[in-house]
Amino acid sequence: MTVKGIAVIGAGYWGPNLIRNLQAHPEWDLRWVCDLDSERAARAVGQAPGVRVTTSLDDVLDDPAVVAVAVATPAATHTAVVLSSLEAGRHVLVEKPLAPSLAEGQKLVEVAEDRGLVLMCDHTYCYTPAVLKIRELVRGGELGDIQYFDSVRVNLGLVQNDIDVLWDLGPHDLSILDFILPEDMRPTSIAATGADPVGAGHLCVGYLTMPLGNKAVAHVHLNWLSPKKVRTTLIGGSRRMVVWDDLDPSQRVSVYDRGVELQGTQGDARRQAQVAYRLGDMVAPALPEREALQGVAGEFASAIAEHRAPLTDGRSGLRVLELLEAAGRSLEQGGGFVNIGAES
Amino acid sequence: MTVKGIAVIGAGYWGPNLIRNLQAHPEWDLRWVCDLDSERAARAVGQAPGVRVTTSLDDVLDDPAVVAVAVATPAATHTAVVLSSLEAGRHVLVEKPLAPSLAEGQKLVEVAEDRGLVLMCDHTYCYTPAVLKIRELVRGGELGDIQYFDSVRVNLGLVQNDIDVLWDLGPHDLSILDFILPEDMRPTSIAATGADPVGAGHLCVGYLTMPLGNKAVAHVHLNWLSPKKVRTTLIGGSRRMVVWDDLDPSQRVSVYDRGVELQGTQGDARRQAQVAYRLGDMVAPALPEREALQGVAGEFASAIAEHRAPLTDGRSGLRVLELLEAAGRSLEQGGGFVNIGAES
Amino acid sequence: MTVKGIAVIGAGYWGPNLIRNLQAHPEWDLRWVCDLDSERAARAVGQAPGVRVTTSLDDVLDDPAVVAVAVATPAATHTAVVLSSLEAGRHVLVEKPLAPSLAEGQKLVEVAEDRGLVLMCDHTYCYTPAVLKIRELVRGGELGDIQYFDSVRVNLGLVQNDIDVLWDLGPHDLSILDFILPEDMRPTSIAATGADPVGAGHLCVGYLTMPLGNKAVAHVHLNWLSPKKVRTTLIGGSRRMVVWDDLDPSQRVSVYDRGVELQGTQGDARRQAQVAYRLGDMVAPALPEREALQGVAGEFASAIAEHRAPLTDGRSGLRVLELLEAAGRSLEQGGGFVNIGAES
Amino acid sequence: MTVKGIAVIGAGYWGPNLIRNLQAHPEWDLRWVCDLDSERAARAVGQAPGVRVTTSLDDVLDDPAVVAVAVATPAATHTAVVLSSLEAGRHVLVEKPLAPSLAEGQKLVEVAEDRGLVLMCDHTYCYTPAVLKIRELVRGGELGDIQYFDSVRVNLGLVQNDIDVLWDLGPHDLSILDFILPEDMRPTSIAATGADPVGAGHLCVGYLTMPLGNKAVAHVHLNWLSPKKVRTTLIGGSRRMVVWDDLDPSQRVSVYDRGVELQGTQGDARRQAQVAYRLGDMVAPALPEREALQGVAGEFASAIAEHRAPLTDGRSGLRVLELLEAAGRSLEQGGGFVNIGAES
After folding, report:
1. N or C: which end of chain D has fewer CB within 10 A?
2. Which residues of C touch A281 (CB under 8 A)?
3. From edge to edge, which strands make up the β-sheet containing C119-122?
C-alpha cells in the first residue's frame, strides 16, 4: 500500500465530507483543497498541516504528488473540471451526477478509458453497510428471482431552483438499483410522472416506473413536499424479501423468508387453489457501523492500485444519466415509457 | 325513525359483517339472509329470532316488509341481483365494485334514478373515523390547496384468480379519493403500470397515477407480494399535510402544520431564495372508536328516509369503475395516460 | 379423543370468550351457561342448540354429562364456586386470580389434589404463540443464563374500585414469569412501590422488583394512567436476548444474538478491558396465528384425559397469589423486600 | 456582550464536544485546551488559531484573559481541578457528576458561593429542545398536577469498571427530574434495586423509585444489558400527559390531552361509576433543531454576565449526588427507602 496524494475540488455542501474522510483514510494523503471561494476552502480544511488551499485548479494539477482528484463542484462544472484532471493524467472521483448530460458524461468516460485512468462516481449510498448487504443478498441468490424494487424517498426537502426532484433525489435510487442488480436485470425502459403543485417550474413530486428483466419492475417515489421523512425500500424476491428502512438505525435491513408460489401451470383454470404461501422467520442481519465515505475512499484507492474499474465506475454514472434523460423525455411525452439502452 | 326491513343477499366473506352490523343497528330490522348455500346462510345468521334463511331471491322480494337489500354476492352477479331488487322497488346497498363493468354499473344507476330508489355503494373505508376526519379537513379547507395524495396498500395478499391487484385493492383507494376530494379536483386521467413477476396471469404489483385538478397528483401503490403490510396515505396541502397510517391504532391520523411556499414569481430567476418553509406542530386528532359498517348502515337508512343520495351513491361507484376500466386500457396501451370523463 | 361435557359459570366480561372458544373446540361439548343474570347468560350463548341457560350452579352439577366447569365469576366468588364444583367431582378451569387470597387458594388446591381432579388456572397469556415461543427459548437454553426480565404493562386503564393495579394487571406478568422460568429461577422475594396520585384509595401506578435465582432480577411496571399503551417485555440472557412487543403484530418476538461477557476474574483490576460485546443478527421467529383460549381449552382437555397437571395448574395460581400477597405486605412495610416461599 | 476567555480542561470523551461548541459560540473565546496527554489535547483542538495546548492547569490559570474553565476530566479529579480554578477566581462549568461524593460537592459549592463565582453543572440533556419544552409544560401548569415520571434508559452499554449503572446513567434522569420539577415536588426519599447478573462487581441493571411531593412518584430503569436501545420517559399529569421518546427525531415530544378524574369522594362506595376519562387530541410541538451544548455555553455566559445562578447550578449537582448516595445506601440496606434532604 502506497499512500497517494489527492486534492478535493469544491468545498461547498459535500466537499467537507470528502475532506474529512480522505484525511482520515490511511491510503490517502490530502494535499490540496481548491475552491473559487478561498475562505470557504480554508474553513473546510481547518489548519490541517500540509493541506494547501488554492482557487486555481492549475495549482493542483501542477503538483506531481497529486495522483487523483475528488470533484465536488456544482454539476454544471463537472465536465470541465473532470476533463482537465483526466487530461492532466489524474484519476478522478466525482460527485453525482457524473455530468449534467449523458453526452458530456460519455465524453468523460471515453477520455478516462483512453488514458487508462480510473473515473469513479461517488454514489455514496452504495457503500453503506445496508446496501452492501442487500447487494450481497441479491447477487448471491439468497433472494431468488427479483420480483420488484420499490423505493420511497420523501421529506420536506429543499425545493431546488435549477433541477427537479428527479435529478435531485433520483440519482440515489437509480445508482443503488444499478449497484445491486445483476446486469441482465437492468431497466429496459422508464416512465416518469409527477406534479409541480407549488409552481416551482418543475416536478416537486415524482414517480419513476422501470420494467426490469425477467418480468420484474422497479418504482421510485420522490417527493420534496412530504411532512414526514421516509426512506424505505421494499425488494421482493422469489425466495426472500427485504425491507430496508434507512431511518431505523436499530433495524435497517429486514430479510423475510416469505413469498408466494404459483404451483399451477399458466393455463390451469383452478390455479388459485394452488398458490402456496411461505411465512417464515425474519432475520435482521447485524451491520457494521461504518461511514460510507470511508468505503468510497477505499474503493477509489484500490481501483487505482489494482488497475481495475471501481464498483461504481463512470459507466454506472452513465447509466444513471441515461435513465434521468429518458425520464425527462417521458415527462415531455406525457408519461409513457421511453426505451433505455439505444444510446449507451 | 321507522325501523325498516332489510335482507342480506350473499353470506360469504363479507356477508356476515353486514348481518352483524344490520342486526345491531337500531334503524334496521334484518328479516332474511339469502345464499345459494343454505347451510352457509344458516351459519352466518346463527339462530337469530325472526331472521329467515333462503336460497331464493324471490322469497326475499316477495316479502313486503323488506324495503331494502344489502348485496354481498360475487361481483359477477351484482348486475342481476341489484337489477331484480331495484325492479322490485327495493333500495339497494351493494359491495364494491358496483358492477363488473362500467356499462353494467351505468345501467343500474339509471334504473335506480328512474325509480327514485337509493342505490348505495358499500365503500366501507369511507365511513371509518379516520377517513371521515380527513374528508372534513380537506373539505373544510384546513389543508388548503391539495397538492398530492399518495397511498400505499401492500401486504402478502391473496393472489386472486380472476381479478388483478388493481381491481382487488384499488377500489379502496379510489373510493376514498372520490370521497374526500371536492368535485373539481377529481382525476382527469389515469396511467397504470406494474408487474406480474409470479406468472399469475395479471398484475400482482400495480401503480396508478392520476393527475388531479389544480396541478395536483394522486398515486396509488398496490402490491400482493410485500413481506410487510403497509396502509399509509400521505396527503399534501398548502396549509397542512396529513399522514394516515391505518396500522397505528394509537395515532392513525397526523396533521402537520408544515409546508413550502414559493414567494417569488414564476419568472423570478432568484426564486430559490424566496421559498418559505413552515415547520409547525403536529396534531393527532382524537378519533371515536366505531365500526365503519355502523356508519354505512346509518347512512343507508338516512338516505332512504330523507329521499336523498347517500354519501357514497351509485355515481361514486361509477367513477371508481371508470377509473379501473381506464387503468386497464392504460395497461394495454403500455402505461400512458388515458382520459377520464368522456363516458360518464 | 372423547368429547367432554362442560359448563361455563359466569357470563360477564370474560365468560363470552370462554363460551365462544369452548363451542369451537373439538374436544368440548358446551352444555350449560350459568349466571345469576339469566338474560346476560342467554345473550352470551345466543341460540346455540343444546346449550342450556341457568341461574343455578346446582342445575349444572346435577348433569352427569358435565365433567368439567369453567369459572369466570368475580374473584370474590371463586372459592365457593370452585369448591362446590370440585366436591361434586368436576374438573375446574378458573379465571385469574385463582382465589381472592392465598389461604383460600391453598384450600382449593388441596381439595383438587385429594380428589385427583384437574384444577387449572386460565393464565391466558401463557398460551399465546409469543409466550409459548419465549418459554421454549428459555427452557431450551437458547437464551443461556437468564439475566433479567423487565415488563411494562401500561395504558389509560379502567381504574378499578375494589382492587389496585397490582392485583388487576399483575397476574398477567407474574403468571408469564412463572410459566417461562425454570423452577430454580423463581422469585425468592418481592418489593412493591408505586403511587395513587388520583386518590383512588389504592395504587394506580405500581412497580414490582423480584430477585430471581442465579443473580437475575425481574421487574414489572403496571400503570393505569399512561397516555400510551405499552406491552413490552425485555428478557436478557447470556446467549440471546428477547424483546416481546405484544402491540406489534408484525414482529412480536425479536431474538437478538447480543450480549456482554466478562472475561476477567472477579479480582482482576483491569477487568474492563476484558469485556467482550457480541452484536449478532436478530431473528423474529414466525409465529402461528392462533387464539390463546383455544390452547387453554386444549390443555385443559388433555390434562384431564392424561391424568396429569396442566401447564398452568393450581399451584401456579398459588405462586401468583403468594407474590401478590407479599407485594401487599411490602407496600405496607414501606417498599422493602418480603420473602417468598415460607408459606407455600 | 463581551467575549470571555475560557479554557477546556480534559480532552478525553466529552472534551472535544465542549471544544467544538465553545469555539462556535459567539460569547466565548476558547484560549486553552489542557490535558495530561498533550497529543490528545492537540488532536482535539486541531490547529485552531489562538488556542494553546498545555498539560499544566497552572498555565491556564496564569492567563488573566481566562475568566472561566470547563472541566471534563475524570470524575475522581473534579474536586481538585474545580477547587483550584475557583480559588484562582475562575467561574467553572463541570461535567456530571459535580464531584465523586456529596461531601466534596458541598465543599465546591461553598467555595463558589463564598467567592461569588458561577459554578455550573453541564447537565447537557436539560438544554435539549425536548427537555426545555417539557420543563415549560410542567412549570407553566399545562400538565396540571404531576402524577408520575417514568424513565427508561437502556441499551447494550459499556459495562464500566469503576462505577455502577446508577452512577453512569442515573445522573441524566436525576438531573432532568430536578430541572423540570418545581421545588416542592422534589424527591423526598429513594429506593434502589437491581442486579449484577454478569459478575461485574456492581449493578448492571438498576431501578430507582422516588416518591415525589403531592403523592406522585418517579421511577427510573437503567440497564447496560438491553439488546435494544430505549430512551423513553412518560410523564403523567392531571391535565395533560407527555411521552418523550428521544430516539424518534420526527416526534420526540407528544402531549396527550388524556386523563382520569375521580369525581366521587374518598368514602364513596360507588366511586368507580364516577371516574371520568378524557381522550382528547395529541399534539407534538415543533422543536427547534439545536445542539444542547450551545445552550449550555450560552447559559454559562449569561449567568456570569448577569451575576446569577445558572439553571443547572452547583446546588442542582448536589441534589443529584445526594440521590445517588442515598440510592447506594438503599442498595446496602436491601432496597428500602432512604430519606433525602437531611444532609443538604
Report:
1. N
2. 283-286
3. C52-54, C28-34, C4-9, C66-71, C91-95, C119-122
pLDDT confidence of C329, banded at 50, 70, 90? very high
Contact A236 B266 (CB under 8 A): no
| D111 Cβ neighbours under 8 A, 6+ residues apart | D83, D86, D87
Q: Number of A:B CB contacts under 8 A?
A: 193
What domains sit in chain B, N to C, each tagged with a CATH number? 4-123+292-312 (3.40.50.720), 126-290+324-338 (3.30.360.10)
Confidence tier at A344 by pLDDT (50, 70, 90): very low
Of B46, B228, B229, the CB nearest to C47: B46
Which chain B residue's Cα is nearest to C228? B250
Q: What angle do CA B125, B75, B62 make, to 5 degrees?
A: 100
What DSSP element (H or E) covers B231?
A: strand B225-237
For C68, the enclosing helix (H) or strand (E) is strand C66-71
Q: How far apart are CA B20 and CA B16, in angstroms?
A: 6
CB-based contact C227 D148, cutoff 8 Å: no
C-alpha cell at C135: 418459554
Task: Return d(Cα B158, Cα A276) in angstroms, integer.
Answer: 10
- In this predicted model, what pLDDT tens digit does every residue of B320-338 receive, in sequence order? 999 999 999 999 999 999 9
Distance between A137 CA and the closest CA of chain B, angstroms = 16
Closest Cα in chain C to B48: C47
Question: Which positions in chain B touch D284 (Cβ < 8 Å)?
Answer: 254, 281-284
**Contact (CB<8Å) C198/D147:** yes
Cβ within 8 Å, pair C209-D214:
no
pLDDT of B343 higher than 90: no
A→C contacts (Cβ < 8 Å), by residue, are 251, 254, 257, 279-286
| Backbone φ, ψ for residue D46 (5° rounding) | 65, -145
Q: What is the mean pLDDT of residues B207-215?
A: 95
Task: Looking at the complex, report in whole angstroms how far the Cα of residue C209 sits from the nearest Cα belonging to chain D.
Answer: 7
Summarised one tens digit per residue, pLDDT across range A274-306 is: 788 899 999 999 999 899 999 999 999 999 999
C-chain CB neighbours of B228 within 8 Å are 250
Cβ(B243)–Cβ(B225) below 8 Å: no
Mind listing the pLDDT tens digit for each residue in B113-146?
999 999 999 999 999 999 999 999 999 999 999 9
The pLDDT tens digits of the residues spanning D73-112 come to: 999 999 999 999 999 999 999 999 999 999 999 999 999 9
pLDDT the model gives residue D263? 74
Contact D48 A46 (CB under 8 A): yes
Half-sphere exposure for B53 (CA within 13 Å, toward CB): 17
- A chain contacts of residue B221, beta-carbon cutoff 8 Å: 150, 219, 221
Share of chain D above pLDDT 90, in %: 88
List CB contacts (< 8 A) between B207 and chain A: 207, 209, 219
pTM of the model: 0.95
Q: What is the pLDDT of residue D265?
A: 54
Per-residue model confidence (pLDDT) at position C1: 64
Q: Of the candidates B65, B102, B107, B101, which has an alpha carbon nearest to the alpha carbon of residue B87? A: B107
**Nearest by CB: B250 against C46, C47, C228:** C228
Residues D216-226 have pLDDT tens digits of 999 999 999 99
Q: Which residue of C has its CA nearest to D339?
A: C334
Chain B residues whose CB is inside 8 A of the A271 CB are 161, 200-201
3-state helix, strand, coil in chain A (%, to 5): 35, 30, 35
| Neighboring chains of B (3 or more beta-carbon pairs < 8 A) | A, C, D
What is the pairing mode between strands C275-284 and C338-339? unpaired
User: What average pLDDT does this structure show over A246-261?
Assistant: 95
Backbone angles phi, psi at C250, to 5 degrees: -85, -10
Q: What pLDDT, on a 0 to 100 scale, did the predictor assign at position D175?
A: 98
